[in-house]
Amino acid sequence: xxxxxxxxxxxxxxxxxxxxxxxxxxxxxxxxxxxxxxxxxxxxxxxxxxxxxxxxxxxxxxxxxxxxxxxxxxxxxxxxxxxxxxxxxxxxxxxxxxxxxxxxxxxxxxxxxxxxxxxxxxxxxxxxxxxxxxxxxxxxxxxxxxxxxxxxxxxxxxxxxxxxxxxxxxxxxxxxxxxxxxxxxxxxxxxxxxxxxxxxxxxxxxxxxxxxxxxxxxxxxxxxxxxxxxxxxxxxxxxxxxxxxx
Length: 246
Fold this sequence. Notes:
The protein is of the alpha/beta class. The protein has helices spanning about 5-15, 35-45, 65-75, 80-90, 105-110, 130-140, 150-160, 185-195, 210-215, 225-235, 240-245, and strands spanning about 20-25, 50-55, 95-100, 115-120, 140-145, 145, 165-170, 200-205, 220-225. The longest helix is centred in the first third of the chain and has 14 residues, at about 5-15.
């Protein structure tokens, strides 16, 4: 099974078990660099796929919580190279997707580290051919993001191009927003699902079990980032929080 297929299979397995696939996001090395793998293991107890954020100084799509976590990790010396070394030395078997701004073409190293794919928010489709070719050689996913404002033709293009899952942003703006989802989001998710055969995961603003249930009726999985980082920041058990979302 190719790495990108592992991502899809993990989410489909959750759905087949009657659950909403859970994709927790954690900034690598946050809140403590030395506890990265231990934190990841706790998150993997309930995460079907884990999105690991590579800290970046100007994460344009991220709200204040993820920005704060990125700055903290950078101050602790966390880098993409360090993340890959840590993952390579670990025994994590949950599919890992790296979320990276200012991407670097490290496909072979990513495979060795057990990474199954990348999310690159600042990489437009029209400029991605070189990176996609490097990832395709290793069977890695390049997960595409779509939003409620994506035009129909582009939505169809991105859904067909995505691997692993389609990242359906639920609201306009940045991550970590208010708990209220626009009522029309379910119609939007239905449209996204109609354009792809791979899982669709809804992200941005997911904080509560009720949201997970509502979104799970129209998507295969949900992505939980800022709410999880806030629990980590306050010293709470991440596994307990994630378990409570199901």
